[in-house]
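Appendix C reproduces, verbatim, an entry submitted by the partner laboratory led by Prof. M.T., so that reviewers can inspect both the input and the predicted structure.
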Amino acid sequence: MDVQMLSTAGALAAAVSGSRLVGEPETAAKGLAYDSRLVKPGWCFAALVGADLDGHAYAASAVDRGASLLLVERELPLPVAQIIVRDSRASLAELATAFYGDPSRSLTVTGVTGTDGKTTASFITDAILRRAGERTGLIGTVAIRVGDEEDLHATRQTTPESADIQRYLRIMADRGIRRATLEATSHGLAMHRLDGVSFAIGAVTNITSEHLDYHGTVENYWNAKGILFDRIGAAGGVAVVNLDDEGARAMIPHAAGAQMLTYSSSGGEAAMRAVGTVSDGSGSRFRLETSDWGGVDIRLPLIGGFNVANALCAAGLRWRRVSRWTRWRKGCGKRPPSRAGWR
């Protein structure tokens, strides 16, 4: 999946806050890459600084491959235009959003976060929409899908870099897709990969105490997850929260200003709850009861209470369509890929 774009150094620098342009403002940028091996003539190369590698060490190689513009944290002795910024990774999100024309503004984007269940909830959500006859986009652990075209990406990076996300969203918008579902990891949120994405709906499955090797403390981990709901609240969107989980409940204050929809797989007092759950070798059965729309009996081809919770999460994400019980039940009846069957 590819997309052709064109911008200039001056226009891109103007879109990146706190940047300084060295070189000719009319320098054309025909593409965008953060891997020097992928650079083509006339492209912009973003020198990202990571824990193990510094992209500035590969800037010369990118120029040798034809890069006409660099996004860097310090001026380099190279004969091309350079946008100098304080944090190249954060600035890449701004630059990519501008380069690809802010594509999420043309989409209704749903973000799903949580320690477990993101993939399953995302796939069920996508299945509901597809059963309703809509062409959709999906970015997650197992695959990146644009309509019926699927890319089973080898990296398994759940939340790709911002340049990739913006490119995929641009392709979706250009192909007439209007609804996209993204898995939003704590790493992706904290590392600015999702900056520039306009989320309309967000959900949290659960939040435990993982990824502390990166975040350091549970509080930092939870706050990273909270970034999604800060944005949902600021946009006046819809927040879907699992009331059975302490970490998920901690997202509620972040979502101030959003419409709140809650769910409980244990039958608790929530807008959506599962009662009478029975699981066997063929899957799970339960009755979904809602505070406003009545109830319906559901058969899910996945076992375990956690997958019942994932189905409720998907119902919340598509709450305007839950009254269309037939389509919703068919969406729940579609088994996700094997990796999505995991928690």
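The first helix runs from residue 9 to 15. Additional entries are available on request from the coordinating office.
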